[in-house]
Amino acid sequence: MSFIETLAQNYEKLITWLLVILGWLVVAQQNDAREIRRELRAKIDAAQSCVSKICSEALSYYSVSGSAEGLSSVKIQITMQLQDLSGCINRLVSGKRVSVVDAFVEYRKSITLNGFDDLNRSAYPIGSDRLNQIFDAASSLSEKLELLRKGGNSKWRRKT
Amino acid sequence: MTIKTIKIASDFSRFPSGRSEAIGPFSGERFRRDFLEPALKSNDKVIVELDGVLGYNSSFLEETFGGLIRHAGYSAQQLREKLEVKTIHLSLYSEIWKYIDEMDYTAREGLS
Question: B104 in contact with A at a CB cutoff of 8 Å?
Fold first, then answer.
């Protein structure tokens, strides 16, 4: 009996097996996609939490005068956390220059460009432009991270 | 062609901070004046490696790289030819070239 004849007689079995394999591939792909989305969500949550923490510390930092006691350790903490957040964002965007990177740059500038090292600066009152600027930059960065969550899945999948 | 590599973490400080020298010894002003400007003057290309430090403040970055145009008289075009910035942080790369371009625009338009 030739191969073609055998195939013709068993085509029902063949189709059943093909459907099983196809179904398995679809399920495996969906599981992968779900896992990738979960990982992405966790990374974005961590980054957003870091943005809030730094914002809170920066607002406290500028709410007292530059000569206040213990401020240098807060300054170091903020600098280190910003560096960590930068690394975190790097991993999220995987080397592509996207708006979240620009938002992060604006955030770092809002905190550390002017007066960050000035021991003679006065305390900024709640509601002052300086504190509002930091808060606005933090909100903008958080929103950009949120957009990454909504629109970044397909890109994320290709990169990983 | 002469190439000089400056590793900030090992050649300058792991704790670079602040704009002016009055703030401390590891300021942007001092790094630019004592390390970057001499290297740019005596080499065809200078590579600055940024990684390995505690972190960077925007004031340090602006004074170091924006200051090359403001104080040392370079143009953004000249710096693109002579200066290479190496880092794994996209944000640092982006911020540095933003300061250079902004300061170049300010200098050309006579806005300062």
Answer: no
Name every chain B residue with its beta carbon within 8 A of the beta carbon of A117.
Answer: 17-19, 23-24, 57, 59
Query: CA angle, B58 as apex, B55 and B60 as ends, to 5°?
Result: 80
Pull the structure tokens for residue B31: 């790094």
**Residues A118-138 pLDDT 10s:** 888 899 998 999 999 999 999
Q: How confident is the model over A146-155, as a mean pLDDT?
A: 67
Nearest to B21 by CA among B30, B12, B13: B30
Closest partner residue to A117 (CB to CB) among B56, B59, B89 is B59
pTM of the entire predicted model: 0.85
In which element (H, E) is residue A103 found? Answer: helix A99-112
